Amino acid sequence: MADNEKLSTFGLQEEPIRYVETMTVKDGVECDVYSFNDNGSKDLGVVRVNKGAKTPLQRVLAGVTTTEGFLSGKGTLTVQSMDGEVTAFTFDEQNHGDVVVVEVGQIMQWEADADSELVFYEVCVPPYIDGRFENLPE
């Protein structure tokens, strides 16, 4: 997906979506925010991570489901459970479509490989509001 290309549908059912805005999350990380036209119970973020960059280290504080999914590039999603167990999910073009549901209380962070941009999506149910995630020191 080109940097300026915006989506009009999402997922296997090709649900209609509407582009809302592009947000700078931090240096090297941008997020295109979308709303679902026919389903106000969730929203979508398509996140681009520059080569070697990371998203903020975040604890999920609220929400029913937070679904993280790989779209393109290469990178790793690290998830720490509430008991401290750490699981690293490595993504490349071989596992396009794989998803990880991150639960309330868990900590997550995406990191792009040094030689590749990473693009992933995040579906929040209910839609994202400030306070859903807590940014943690690294």
Tell me the major beta sheet: 7 strands, antiparallel
Return the string of H and E elements.
EEEEEEEEEEEE
Q: Radius of gyration, Cα only, in angstroms?
A: 14 Å
Overall form: globular
The pLDDT mean sits at 93
As an assembly, this protein is: single chain
In helices, the fraction of residues equals under 10%
Question: Low-confidence runs (pLDDT<50, min 5 residues)?
Answer: none
- Distance from first to last alpha carbon: 30 Å
Count of discrete alpha- or pi-helical segments spanning 4 or more residues: 0
Structural class: mainly beta
Number of strand segments: 12
Arrangement of strands in the largest sheet: 1-2-3-4-11-6-9
Strand fraction equals over 45%
Please characterize this protein's 3D structure.
The strands form 2 sheets. This protein has a 7-stranded antiparallel β-sheet with strand order 1-2-3-4-11-6-9, with no helix packed on it. It is globular. The mean pLDDT is 93. The chain has 138 residues and is mainly beta. It is built from no helices and 12 strands.
Please summarize what this structure is.
By secondary structure, the chain is mostly beta strands. The protein has no helices and twelve strands.
